[in-house]
Specification:
The protein contains 13 helices and 4 strands. Strand 2 and strand 3 form a beta hairpin.
Length: about 325
């Protein structure tokens, strides 16, 4: 059985138990791919510091992991920790996304970072500050590094930077090729967010190991990497660019046009006049045509996330 399929089955099993987070954020393979691309671009000092911090401040062995693979590279293994940590520290949930409403203006982006719960752009800045502070407790620096490894991936997942009162498209049921929609406890599977997190990546990777997939993407985008590096580090810009990709591709290439909702607060798919049920009626389908449009975006966003993660860590430890 292909390694990516094994990891996906582990996530599926966890979801069936109702314990997995609502918004996974690239899934195991996506986050691990980002970390491995980044590792290939670290300067010697940054690489040594990353390895030392992770070695000296290991992940709590009592923490339940959704991506268990003890043979995995420590950076890649640590890249999925923040989702596991969120399960026991739900106060960090808002750190994983940036709820920029569909139809919003770029000039208003700051108002969508909820000061009570933070957002992925602010969380990245906050955790980098912990890393840079040599007076930070060792355990705090270890956690900060793992957060940065994860959030650099999350901010590049388009559906982590947008909302249509649908919880980042978790409330947009879709038929995924031959997999029909199942409804359970007000949740929908497959849904558009989860498809971008895991299902499409698995199809794009075509059975490659994470190491092989990361190397292939790094090579594929080699000619563009210098331009990404020259543009520098700007979390709001990264989030806005991903937001626009959500509009043009994640939503824009669906077979049925989804209207832009008037922004309201939502906590479940039953809110906003039962948005989940309304989206279910559209009978959205993810097929080969949609995959052909989404695959180049996903590949580039994973590669960008890896290069930019390396930029962050190289800036912390030049």
């Amino acid at each position: 059985m292909a390694p990516l399929r094994v990891a996906l089955l582990l996530i599926t099993a966890a979801l069936a138990l109702g314990a997995a987070p609502a918004a996974w954020g690239w899934g195991c393979e996506g986050h691990q791919t980002v970390a491995l691309i980044a590792k290939a671009h670290l300067n010697p000092h940054a690489l040594a510091m990353v390895e030392q911090i992770l070695r000296d401040n290991p992940i709590d062995p009592a923490l339940q992991r959704y991506c268990p693979d003890p043979a995995l590279d420590p950076m890649a293994d640590s890249s999925t920790w923040a989702d596991d940590y969120r399960n026991v520290h739900p106060e960090t949930g808002g750190w994983h996304f940036f709820d920029i409403p569909r139809g919003a203006l770029r000039a208003n982006i700051d108002q969508f970072c909820d000061p009570a719960h933070s957002c992925v752009a602010k969380a990245l800045a906050d955790q980098i500050a912990v890393l840079k502070n040599t007076a930070s407790a060792p355990g705090d620096r270890g956690n900060a590094l793992r957060f940065v490894l994860h959030f650099a991936g999350d901010i590049h997942q388009p559906l982590h930077d947008t909302t249509n009162n649908d919880r980042g498209a978790n409330c947009v049921p879709v038929t995924f090729f031959n997999t029909k929609v199942a409804v359970s406890g007000g949740s929908y599977k497959p849904n558009l967010h989860a498809v971008w997190d895991t299902d499409l990546i698995e199809r794009i990777a075509k059975g490659q190991t994470v190491v092989q997939f990361a190397a292939a993407l790094d090579k594929q985008f080699q000619s563009q990497e210098a331009g990404w590096q020259a543009a520098g580090i700007n979390f709001d810009s990264w989030a806005w660019d991903a937001h626009e990709l959500a509009e043009s591709t994640a939503y824009g290439k669906l077979n049925k046009k989804i209207p832009i909702e008037k922004p309201v607060a939502v906590n479940s798919c039953a809110d906003d006049n039962n948005i989940g049920a309304r989206m279910l009626k559209l009978k959205e389908k993810i097929d080969a045509n949609y995959e052909a449009a989404a695959a180049p975006v996903i590949e580039e966003q994973l590669a960008k996330a890896g290069i930019r993660l390396a930029m962050i860590l190289n800036e912390v430890w030049p």
